[in-house]
Amino acid sequence: MRVVAPRNGWQWLKDGARLFAKSPFTWVFAVFAYWVIMLATKALPHAAGFLLSLLMPAFAMSFMALARECAAGRRASPLVLSEGFRSRLPALVALGAIYLAATIGVLGITAIVDGGVLARWMLLGEAAQDDAPTGRLVLGGIVATLLSTPVFAAFWFAPILAAWDAMPPMKSLFYSFFAVWRNWRAFLVYGGAVLAASLPLMMLFGMAVTLLANVGGSTVSGSPEARVGAGMLLASPLLFGAVAILLASFYASYRDIFPPDRSVTSGVLEAR
């Protein structure tokens, strides 16, 4: 593990775009398949959603395996997306259970300040009532953000460390947390770069939806909402590509902070 320069946070996003460009169709297919799975669970009982939460680290590792193939210059096959379910799956499921428990704990604390509105929306999909106090909702969101930050830090690298470096779940969480904490400047730059890239992307996506709603949506009979829906569907590959670049940048951050040419547990305080 090493401490990298703050500017490396911007480089992670650039490397993510480079990895995406090596196999864009496979990346878009992978994100689309994941989106379909997420959408399908909405029609299933809540228990299916909890089960899917346990498998989230395995899904994450499938994307990391795809990024590794692209980084090595190998032809990426859709079959690589099954690697997350073939590499130390019990450890990944354990991480999923810990993450679910942490999320429920965070939402339980936010329920004290917002009356459980955020928890019901996140866990049960119940929308906030119109008469819900706005101030309490905002406060609940702030509390959730503050409490979730260390959770995200602990889980940022944990699936990769558990699957590829054979770490036990708790040890992977420990090293992930301190890797992010020691590199907080690079992650701050990375977050700023993601936000800066998101603004023009959303503008471009909105323009694409409008254009495609007018052109491709002309074949759709019905309300203007149906035309907009058709435009969003046609423009979805743009959004899938952006998500793919973000996922590939996770791998870039891992390989920068945990280089392959040295032990994961060595050089904890080493600066680059």
Total E-strand runs: 2
Largest sheet: 2 strands, parallel
Number of helices in the DSSP assignment:
11
What is the percentage of strand-forming residues? under 5%
Poorly predicted regions: 266-272
| Helix-and-strand structural type | mainly alpha
What is the domain total for the residues? 1
Strand arrangement across the biggest beta sheet:
1-2
Taking Cα atoms only, what radius of gyration do you get, to the nearest Å? 20 Å
Describe the structure.
The chain is an all-alpha fold and 272 residues long. It has one domain (2-271). The chain contains 11 helices and 2 strands; from the N terminus they run E-H-H-H-H-H-H-H-H-H-H-H-E. Strands 1-2 form a two-stranded parallel ribbon. Helix 4 crosses helix 11, helix 5 (89-114) runs antiparallel to helix 7 (134-156) and helix 10 (184-215) runs antiparallel to helix 11 (224-257).
Report a brief summary of the structure:
The protein has 272 residues and is mainly alpha-helical. 74% of the residues lie in helices and 1% in strands.
